[in-house]
Each structure stands twice: as structure tokens, then as C-alpha cells.
Design a protein that fits this description.
The complex is a heterodimer of chains A (about 230) and B (about 400). With about 230 residues, chain A is α/β, with parallel strands linked by helices. In chain A, about 40% of the residues lie in helices and about 25% in strands. The chains are: A alpha/beta (about 230), B alpha+beta (about 400).
Chain lengths: ~230, ~400
């Protein structure tokens, strides 16, 4: 990553904010923390942010109001709602107001990374059309994969997984986290382990068959890690 | 039975009884009066006979309606009915018999008086009476019916408004003001109740959201810390396994919380806005989610979508219903088994060739009922399915023959 992206974390739970910030730092972002709406407004005036992670239930009001304010400034800022309120209405309301994504607590940092990077990619389409790690190049918009310059035919799910690993290099991603990523709702719970295993097995095979390195390493049978030197 | 029908029926039955008793009473009393009158006239004629008999010969007194016969003993006077044939037609007469003593000779005298005229008089009076009464009742019936109807119009409007009342539509109940005191009171009570229910509903909604928030946030902290720990270097296999288990358990807790909140939301009728869509398309669409799982278990998918079935329900609930049923049929299937989905004539059945249940059949829809070999399940999916069916009054039945089958019969 050439320039560091400023990310504003609006979160009143201090411990959660701390973890989020250290995860963002690890991933090469420059995080700022605001524990309520008031300090968030102050920071938004002072600094230029690429994206905002917004909790909705804040001590001094509903985060929804901040979405409107940010959208009114016409400055392009990626907006991800991170809320424990898993209500359909809130989700719809937030997205209608212009939020780019919605994460329900508890979430996994690898999931947050993936979503955040995807939001940033969408904001800067022109200079970020492709992602490259060594011999593998991904074109997220076209869902196209090149290994050593040759097209590799991946299914939608496999491409999604690879993109997820691209967003979380050198990070241990537990099976639970991947299962969560692969599932569409909590109704899929307890169901995805086999599915995750199958998809990863296929993905690994396709990468190595095309002459790519075996980046996806199994970690003690509890998770996976996309290892990049 | 409608209120109006009920009151009308009461009115009619009371009227009929009244009318029958009244008619009989009128008939009897009129007949009595006329019979008495006839007897009085006969007595008068008897008196006349006595007056004339003193001055004239008996034979002169004999006429068309007076008959005299010799007799040897005295008799008491008596009345009776008799019929004479006059010009080939039968005419009813009232007859008075009495004895008359003259020159030591008893005579039996019969005086007749035409009764048919009084009979027709009775008839006319009774008919007139019945006619007026009938007319009276009819008029009364319609006036009564109309007045009850108009008095109840507000009542009926209240009923139809209550029928259409849906909490989640965020509308308040507005009832018409009534003239009738009781109905006015009723409307006031309903209005108050609706406001109370609405407030409770809102409070409940807020409560579930708060519970969700209060539980999910600490869970988020736990899982974020575990996730962080997992990234540290030099973790032993055991430590990593324990951390993964922690993460998994926290995630499970969060899912149970979410599922229970979802169940509460269904119970509180959060998801009521519906739309009409094809169930066939929904099933095909949702099956794609399970492509990998079906392949992994080497299941034979038999899809029998015979009729195009359109259904009107909340899309999110419909989705949940289908996903839960298909998921259930895959999880509990044996490797290489059959997954059969049939949609025909407004009935959906999803079958799987899993091994028999390890718990009583009646518990299948109960929360947290799980088979022994699927401990990883939440055990809430089928409860959710059942609740959704209940919400839309669909019939759902589980049967186990050679296969486990869940069958939903949609209404209409």
C-alpha cells in the first residue's frame, strides 16, 4: 500500500476500539478513535478520512445522524456501520442513507479488513483496479484471476475466498471466521465447516495446478493462513 | 349468527307465539260473544212465543223456524246445533228446545235461528284481526330492524377497523364517534387498548434490540481479543486449538442469541409486510447456496417443482423457511442419500434419507432438540420453521417412513 489510509473508528466500547485499532494498524491503516458523536464530528473537521467505522448505539446519540452529516459534506468517505443492532430496519435505513456496508457485532477482524479494503477499492476505482501478490493478480470488479499471466477459472465462491485471503495476508483465519464469511445468515450455522474445507481444497488445487505457490497454509487444523514472504 | 339476525329472530319468534295465542284468543272470545248474543235472541223469541201463545192458537204459531210437537212430559230447555236443507244447501241453525204446558198437554217447542250469518261474522272479524296484526308486526319488524342497523353502524365500522388493525403497520386506531352511549364507551375502551398495545409493542421492540445489543457487544469484545491472540507468534498447537474453540464457542453463543431474538421478532410480528412471488424461483435460488454442501455429501437431488406456486408472505421469512428446511435435510442426510423437494398443488415437501431420530418424534419442532450426532447445530432452525408456518397458518407435518419428510400445506 503506497499511502496510508486514515480510518475513523467511532466506538464507545473502549476494549473493542483498542482491538480494532491494533488490527487496523497491523493492516497498514492509520486509525483514529472517537468515543462519541461529538468527538467524531470534531475529528471529521480536522482530518481527512478514507473511511469511517461507525457504531450506531453511541452515548450521545444514534450514529445514523452522522451518516447524514457525512453525506451532506459531499466528501467521498467510505462508511461501514458496525452495530450490535441486528435489525433489518436499521440496516436498510443505514444503507439507504449512503452507508457502504453493514457489519453486525460480533464480527471478525479479517472480515472487517476484507470489507474495508473492498469499500476503499470501490472509492478509488481508477488507481486500484487490480491486486497483485507475487504471481497472482486479481481483478475484483471482473472477478478475474491471473496466475503467471494466464487466466485461472475460479468459481464465485473460490474467487471470494481468494480475495478474502488477499485482504488478510499472513493472518491466522480460523475455520469459524471463514465459515462466517461463507455463510449468508446465522441459519447456516454449524454447516459451513465442510463447505469451507471443500472450497479451500479446490482453490489450493487450482492455484498450484496453474503454477502458483501454495500460499494457503493449514494452521494446526483450526484455521488457515495466506502466507506471503 | 349476526347480531341483527339474532334480534330479528328473537322478534319474529316472539311475534309468532304472540300472534298465534292472540289469534286463538280473539277467535274464542268473538265466538263466545256471538254465541251468547244468539242465545239471547232465542230467549227473546221464546218470550215472544209465550206472549203470543196466550192469545193465539198453537198451530198458528208454527212457522218455518218454529216447530211444535205434542209430548207427555216436561223437558228442560236446551240449546243445540242443527242443520236444515234449504234450497239444496245446508244451513247451520242454533236451536232452543223447551216445553210449553197448555190445557194439561205438554208441547215440545223448538225455535231455530240462523247461525251461518254469525259464523261469517266471526270469520270476518278473525280475518280482519289477523290481517291487522300481521301488518302491524311486519311494519314493526322492518322499523325495528332498520333502527337497530343504524344504531349499530358505528359498531360494525369498529369491528371492521379492528379486523384490519395491524400493529406493525405503525398506524393508530381511529374509530368513529358513536351516538349510542354503550358503543361510544366500547370504542373508547378499544382506542385505549390499541394505544396501550401499541406502546407495549414499541417497548418490546426496543427491549429485544437492547438485549441484542447488550449481549452482542461483550461477545464482540471476547471474540476480538481471541482473534488478536490467535495472531501471536509461537503459539503451541494446544494453545491455538483452545483459542479456536473459544472463538467457535463465542460465535455459537452469538448465533443462539441472534436466533432467539429472531424467534421473538417472529412472535411479535415484526415481519408482516408481504409480497407475492413464485416459490419455485425462491427454491431454485436458495438451492444454489447449498451446491457445495450437496456435492460434498454426494447427495442425489430430486427436484419436482410441478406447479408454479405463487405465495404471499414476507420475503425474508419465506427465505428463512426454505433455507432452514433444505439445510435440515442436508445436515441430517446420510452421505450419498437423497434430497427430494416436491412442490405441487400448494404443498411443499422436503424429504431426506437420514437415519431415524434419536429423540421422540413429537419433540422435532422443539427448541434445542438435537440429534446425538449433530451437536454443532443450534437446534432452533425447525422451531423457526414451525413459527413461520404458524404465523401464516400453514400446516406443517413431519412423517418418517423410509425417509424423513416435512410437508407444508399452504392455505387456499
Amino acid at each position: 500500500m503506497l499511502k496510508k489510509h486514515n480510518i475513523l473508528v467511532v466506538e464507545d466500547e473502549l476494549e473493542l476500539a483498542k482491538s480494532t485499532i491494533s488490527s487496523l494498524l497491523e493492516n497498514g491503516f492509520l486509525p483514529f478513535h472517537a468515543k462519541n458523536l461529538k468527538s467524531a464530528r470534531k475529528l471529521l473537521k480536522k482530518e481527512k478520512f478514507t473511511a469511517v467505522l461507525l457504531d450506531l448505539g453511541l452515548p450521545d446519540g444514534d450514529g445514523i445522524s452522522l451518516i447524514k452529516e457525512i453525506k451532506n459534506t459531499k466528501i467521498e468517505i467510505g462508511l461501514i456501520i458496525v452495530s450490535a443492532k441486528d435489525s433489518l430496519e436499521k440496516k436498510v435505513q443505514g444503507l439507504e442513507l449512503g452507508a457502504d456496508d453493514y457489519l453486525t457485532k460480533p464480527f471478525f477482524f479479517s472480515e472487517l479488513n476484507a470489507r474495508l479494503k473492498s469499500v476503499i477499492r470501490r472509492l478509488n476505482l481508477e488507481d486500484n483496479q487490480q491486486l497483485t501478490i507475487n504471481e497472482i493478480t486479481l481483478f475484483p470488479e471482473e472477478m478475474r484471476t491471473l496466475i503467471h499471466g494466464k487466466i485461472v477459472d475460479l468459481t464465485g465462491k473460490e474467487f471470494g475466498l481468494l480475495l478474502y485471503f488477499f485482504s488478510n495476508p499472513n493472518r491466522v483465519i480460523s475455520k469459524t471466521t471463514l465459515g462466517e464469511f461463507m455463510s449468508s445468515s446465522y441459519a447456516d450455522y454449524g454447516f459451513t465447516d465442510d463447505v469451507v474445507y471443500t472450497h479451500i481444497k479446490n482453490l489450493k488445487k487450482k492455484i498450484t495446478n496453474s503454477g502458483g505457490d501454495d500460499y494457503i497454509k493449514n494452521v494446526y487444523g483450526v484455521g488457515y493462513k495466506f502466507t506471503v514472504e | 349468527m349476526k347480531l341483527l339476525t339474532k334480534t330479528s329472530l328473537n322478534f319474529i319468534s316472539a311475534s309468532v307465539i304472540f300472534f298465534l295465542v292472540g289469534s286463538v284468543a280473539v277467535y274464542l272470545s268473538v265466538r263466545n260473544i256471538i254465541a251468547e248474543d244468539l242465545q239471547n235472541r232465542l230467549f227473546q223469541q221464546q218470550k215472544q212465543f209465550f206472549d203470543n201463545a196466550d192469545q193465539n192458537k198453537l198451530s198458528d204459531l208454527t212457522s218455518k223456524l218454529v216447530f211444535i210437537q205434542k209430548t207427555d212430559k216436561e223437558i228442560d230447555y236446551s240449546f243445540s246445533d242443527t242443520v236444515l236443507i234449504v234450497n239444496d244447501s245446508y244451513i247451520l241453525y242454533r236451536k232452543l228446545d223447551f216445553s210449553y204446558l197448555i190445557d194439561k198437554q205438554y208441547y215440545n217447542v223448538s225455535i231455530l235461528n240462523n247461525q251461518s250469518q254469525s259464523d261469517s261474522l266471526i270469520k270476518k272479524i278473525v280475518i280482519m284481526n289477523v290481517g291487522f296484526a300481521l301488518l302491524f308486526f311486519l311494519i314493526l319488524f322492518f322499523v325495528n330492524r332498520h333502527s337497530i342497523k343504524s344504531a349499530l353502524s358505528v359498531f360494525y365500522s369498529t369491528i371492521s377497523k379492528l379486523e384490519d388493525f395491524e400493529l406493525s403497520k405503525l398506524q393508530t386506531l381511529s374509530l368513529e364517534t358513536a351516538e349510542v352511549q354503550e358503543i361510544k364507551k366500547l370504542n373508547e375502551v378499544f382506542q385505549e387498548m390499541a394505544t396501550q398495545i401499541y406502546n407495549d409493542f414499541e417497548a418490546q421492540k426496543e427491549y429485544t434490540e437492547n438485549v441484542s445489543h447488550e449481549l452482542q457487544t461483550p461477545l464482540a469484545i471476547i471474540s476480538s481479543k481471541v482473534d488478536e491472540l490467535m495472531q501471536s507468534d509461537n503459539l503451541s498447537k494446544e494453545q491455538m486449538e483452545q483459542l479456536a474453540l473459544l472463538l467457535e464457542t463465542t460465535n455459537r453463543l452469538s448465533k443462539i442469541n441472534q436466533a432467539l431474538i429472531f424467534l421473538t421478532k417472529i412472535d411479535n410480528r415484526f415481519y408482516t409486510q408481504g409480497s407475492t412471488f413464485s416459490l419455485n424461483d425462491l427454491i431454485k435460488e436458495k438451492l444454489q447456496i447449498f451446491d457445495a454442501a450437496i456435492q460434498e455429501k454426494k447427495l442425489k437431488l430430486e427436484l419436482d417443482l410441478l406447479d408454479i406456486t405463487h405465495i404471499n408472505m414476507n420475503p425474508y421469512l419465506a427465505e428463512t423457511l426454505i433455507i432452514n428446511l433444505i439445510k435440515n435435510a442436508i445436515i441430517h442426510n446420510t452421505s450419498g442419500g437423497v434430497l427430494r423437494i416436491q412442490l405441487s398443488n400448494n404443498a411443499l415437501s422436503i424429504s431426506n434419507s437420514g437415519s431415524p431420530l434419536s429423540f421422540p418424534e413429537k419433540d422435532i419442532f422443539k427448541r434445542f432438540t438435537r440429534s446425538e450426532n449433530s451437536k454443532k447445530n443450534l437446534g432452533i432452525g425447525l422451531s423457526i420453521v414451525q413459527r413461520i408456518c404458524e404465523l401464516y397458518t400453514f400446516k406443517i407435518a413431519y412423517t418418517f417412513g423410509s425417509e424423513h419428510q416435512f410437508k407444508i400445506i399452504f392455505k387456499k
